[in-house]
Automatic annotation (TrEMBL), chains A, B, C, D:
Coiled-coil ranges (or none): none
Gene3D superfamilies: Acetamidase/Formamidase-like domains
InterPro entries in alphabetical order: FmdA_AmdA, FormamaseFmdA
Organism in which the protein naturally occurs: Carbonactinospora thermoautotrophica
NCBIfam families per UniProt: FormamaseFmdA
UniProt name for this protein: Formamidase
Length: 415, 415, 415, 415
């Protein structure tokens, strides 16, 4: 079992740990610890909100969450010998919720899924579900159940929502430039088009004073995936995966967090995964000069592990890039097509007795597949959503008998 | 073995068959044959271009293809008792290329993949690959190889690219209205935003005269997926799949064609599948009133079959919604994110000795997975492309040794 | 599509084909046709009994079957350049029932599973089920149902029950010697310990007269698997498989037959597969001197294909090497342990309303897994039988509600 | 995370734990702790030998192991309300090696595989490999490597080798009777046919004096699988599995141990798994009267979990029930057939540079499949062994180029 190189006491905020983490991307954030190529080690993580969400039946905490604190990351881990242009090889050896602890922090035996309010970031279906909701999940080894979504039990597809290397100053400047330009297209939009640097809530390890100020002013928010990996929300980064990250700064400065006990493709309700704190065991290595050797100019690449839960019987919903309510057509818009597939799945599940919100929370968290199906057949993109039927303890397939309707309870709502 | 209800002689055009098929969607196209719920039957199909493409080493035919003839469909099959509001249950029992024939028509022992020229429809990467190219594939049972892309052999994921029910007159009117509105946003665009009805090349079974004229003027082009299913290009509609189609007209009027020996998610080069003529064996049934019962208001739903080829080791490429060349950011644009993932895969494969065009042709045709990974993390959508490593007869994984570079031949080009 | 090198007219006995096959293993049986390494070709096959069994509701034909005619094989195929000591590489490209024909021969739209009577060969559970029974299966593409076993529908795992190369004269002599020695241990046993050469019913291609006499006197019966492959009944030899056969005679002389639409591990009722006639498409190649190079001294080896039906949820029955009725223990006897696992599965299925015979017929034909679990824990071998739960159209899993009992009909019985 | 109900301090023998476990099956062994149906809990385990084997390069400890101490089990766990005739439902929620500890006890970051000497129990191939050997495995999350078998790295299929309920006095008497009868068939055999009760080394929780004496005289050895489950060595009892155990005594008295980080079917070298101490998280429930309801008269049944490592490309070796060295035939002997398949695999791997012992150790520990293929085709049983090719870091498939021979080191040997 590997030694722990980044410790987290789940009873304390990330700010109050002996070695605190960070919540912005910036090359100046100092390494929290160093490892060598070939080494294996454990990193402990807080949940992405630093435990702002509680194990209760009210969604007030989801409604009121302070996003300037997010994502609360562990790291950076310096990798000796890593230089810009290398590929950093990262093996995810194992990961999971906080071991052998029951408590009030996410990951201590439980996790949560939230639908964010439109005024606070929204989500993929925010025009249809503008308010805040929540589901609490109990963890049973690799499986999970929720008192807020009865009738389902499934095997989690556990992964880090966020993992990445630090940007160089040049790369960071490009990020800020292009995201600022996007925001300026509609600066008052709710939810916003992108999130600019913000000084509130910033944490940058042990940095203080003017050094911290610099990170606060320039540091990229951690919400999107970018060239460094980051918040990719790729559910298939399960144990056994090997990731190849581009290296932009000396020592690579690998950081991670936002652990997900499970998540469907797209993490559609923004906080759609089962969010947990926990641990992640890693091995690292280097391919010197690998970015040029393998033509990796932008994003990481990876090989998924062998330990994904095996679901093979699916009910698949389809969507095309048409806004049906207004009979309006969009050009090869895969985002819209996938949104329609999600809405079609929700309408279907409502016929079995679930609320739309329950279905939305389920589709974000269960191991569903979201696929690009047709992307060239003008004008309609076509996307499909694969829902494993074994997730349900009743038969969810269409039949001449019709759906088994039942009282299926209720998600947590805001007061 | 089921009886054949729609016959195709592969030595003749679809126009010259005893009972011809059709190449537009219109409720007035008469049924070619009738079946009863519970019945199993075979339908024979031409390739989607009606055999405009040849088994040779020139891409001139791809460059010059006449798209007004496409897609050449078999049907409509009338299903007795089907009424608007029902769900038509369609079991894909089996399908494949033209049985036991070797010849000049696609599907007679071979298939093709094309990159369409930008001036003739283009494709997903048309700004990067504006010209016409082609690869010919030899079929070996369930596997395939190409003289134009040496070093690969894979198991096809055979499916109908296009299958659907007929629209009602009202639904057809909605299609024409919304697609016309889209075209008007940029009527001169190359390639166009959508394809309006066109009289050239129309075929509507045995209709002639003013009845044919009506179909020619109003009939929807078959290129996009729509509420009736249609050209969904869902690679997972393999043998064993069960599809639930909305019924919009009496007798449902099921049509199909555009058989694919194999295709990756997205069929990215527009003609990216391995295109074949062949046969498809179906069973049909009805869920009366099923659209309302199951909340199916727009698209079909389906359950994939158990016979998909098993690939489990993948190399995964990632893309985000950034136009990196111009450092320009787009808002949660999954289409762009998937395009970037495709470009990243192509750059990678070029390091092994393939041309970009070969890689593009391969990604369209091999059983790759294209997934929506992050769709809420503003501003960047994140998509991922899963390439099965067993497709290659060399080790395509990254390593410290670097890629195995070799002369890997050449795709077919236009003169 | 490959050319057919061995033709079968399903309306005629194998004896009356233009080029007849054979039903004994002997090096002197002349090649029926020749192929070259690298070639792909089709072979047509009769069912293993040469159509002694009919599509009806009586098991009299199973009871009265003449086993001296079995297995009726297609071949031998001579492979140019093959020499003793080589490995013959055989790719199973595709296979299936008789294409596009409905008729009275097995494989013409239907197949059968039989329980043989103890007096006529018996089966794995013959002490428990000594009489003859039958189930007829209708084929629906890759799936099958039986009027004799309602409530099940499954995807076949289609494979040749029997495929192998010809023995040399020396190897044949060894077979005859060791099997004769075994028979002599209990010559009157019913069923017998092994089957010696028998002149009745022999067929050896076009051989006649003294040459045929020689084959009749010496030719090994085709029932067991031996060094040449033969009747291995390996259900995983599905399309896409590559087999490496030892070569014992010049030209290898490959023969095959006994096609199975589906079969569970063990083919437990002797005629436990869904027996069909049909076709098999093959490719061949050679590894010169491969037996020595790869240490292949006895049996073939193979790589399974990618197209096996995907079942992942199983109910698993266990057995150990104890004769529980008499509380008698056997030493690491995997045969007995697997028999007990089969009996345990049958007792379980009877609780849902099936007869023991129906359950027995089902376990032989459905894609069940039979595994060696413990083979060293003295004195008990432990074997396990994995039954895919999706085979049933009701929930077959144990629960506090108890089994869903129903009238589940009846297998075909002998008059 | 469940509470721990059975604690083990890995620095102490099982005898010296606060609540010791046991190493015999006997109804009088008192419960160590009690749980209620519906409860989830953790049990900690020693490796099966109570840490007689060390992390070093000598097999002396394997040669000299004291088997009277084995298997050292945790439990019995009493389940409130369980009565004879019930089915005890046991969910394996999670399991693994000793968490976060590095040390000298098996499971503290490492595990071992042993070939037992013929004079000390032997193994499946003891006539071919009569001496003691060992391999040490380092654990990397879900994967493992061995300095004694370089060139392989694989994902473990972690499971309890041994788990079962207590026998009733009547059942225990039947075991002793039938095993004694077996031993009497050849009392001097080496290795013995079965292991009778033995007083040396007995441990029965806190029992002492005459109560302990009774257990010592009557208690069944834990080596074989029996009606209560026990040492079934079923590699597929991975996390997510649900087992249904027959209940023979009040409170069921569930015990477990012999955790395996990984094991191939058959655990062929007797100590063929990667043996570890560690933890197992369980949930329990009851189906009252379930033995009668579901016809469970002898062995447990189970449903495998969804988290088995996904290997899909295999090299398969075949064996039939012939002793080839003497050309001697056995009647449908699956044990012999599987032994031949193992020997064929070993001969093959030797061609790549492994010693026979390394290959033997690998086949016992890696996630290989061992299948009953033909069990009715008189006189030859046919078994097959599926070796995942991805286990190796070189290409292990047969080809015209021949095997990649290399110096592949050496297993640990006895001095």
């Amino acid at each position: 079992m590997p030694k722990t190189v980044f410790h987290v006491d789940q009873s304390k905020s990330m700010r109050d740990q002996e070695v605190p983490g960070h919540n912005r991307w910036h090359p100046d954030i100092p390494v929290a610890t160093r490892v060598r190529p070939g080494e294996e080690f454990r990193v402990e993580c807080r949940d992405w909100t630093d435990a702002q969400i509680g194990n209760n039946d009210s969604a007030n905490d989801v409604r009121d969450v302070d996003l300037t604190l997010c994502h609360m990351l562990s790291g950076p881990i310096g990798v000796e010998g890593a230089e810009p242009g290398d590929l950093l090889v990262v093996d995810i050896l194992d990961l999971g919720p906080v071991p052998q602890e029951v408590g009030p922090a996410p990951g201590q035996g439980w996790g949560y899924t939230g639908i964010f309010a439109k005024v606070n970031g929204g989500g993929f279906l925010t025009d249809y579900f503008p308010d805040a909701y929540k589901a609490i999940w109990d963890l049973h080894g690799h499986e999970t159940t929720s008192r807020h979504i009865p009738g389902v039990r499934y095997t989690g597809i556990t992964h880090p929502g966020l993992i990445g290397t630090a940007p160089s100053a040049e790369l960071l400047a490009k990020w800020n430039e292009r995201e600022r330009a996007l925001i300026e297209q509609d600066p008052q939009r709710v939810p916003p088009l992108a999130l600019p640097p913000v000084e509130d809530g910033v944490l940058a390890g042990k940095l203080t004073g003017s050094e911290l100020q610099k990170v606060a002013r320039e540091g990229a928010r951690t919400v999107p995936a970018r060239e460094n990996g980051g918040n990719q929300d790729i559910k298939n980064l399960t144990a056994g995966s090997r990731i190849f990250f581009p290296v932009f700064v000396p020592e690579a400065k690998l950081s991670m967090g936002d652990l997900h006990f499970s998540q469907g493709d797209g993490e559609i309700s923004f906080c759609g995964a089962i969010e947990i704190g926990g641990y992640i065991d890693l091995g690292v290595d280097l391919i010197k000069g690998g970015m040029e050797t393998y033509g990796v100019t932008t994003n990481p690449l990876f090989m998924p592990g062998r330990m994904e839960p095996r679901y093979t019987e699916f009910l698949t919903f389809i969507g095309v890039s048409v806004q049906h309510e207004e009979n309006r057509n969009f050009y090869l818009d895969a985002t819209l097509a996938y949104r329609r597939a999600c809405l079609n799945a929700i309408e279907y599940l409502k016929k079995f007795g679930y609320t739309g919100e329950q279905a939305y929370l389920l589709l974000g968290s269960a191991p569903i597949e979201g696929r690009i199906s047709g992307i060239v057949d003008i004008p309609n993109a076509c996307c499909s959503l694969y829902l494993p039927v074994a997730v349900f303890d009743f038969d969810v397939r269409p039949s001449v008998q019709g759906p088994v309707v039942a009282d299926r309870g209720m998600q947590a709502v805001a007061a």
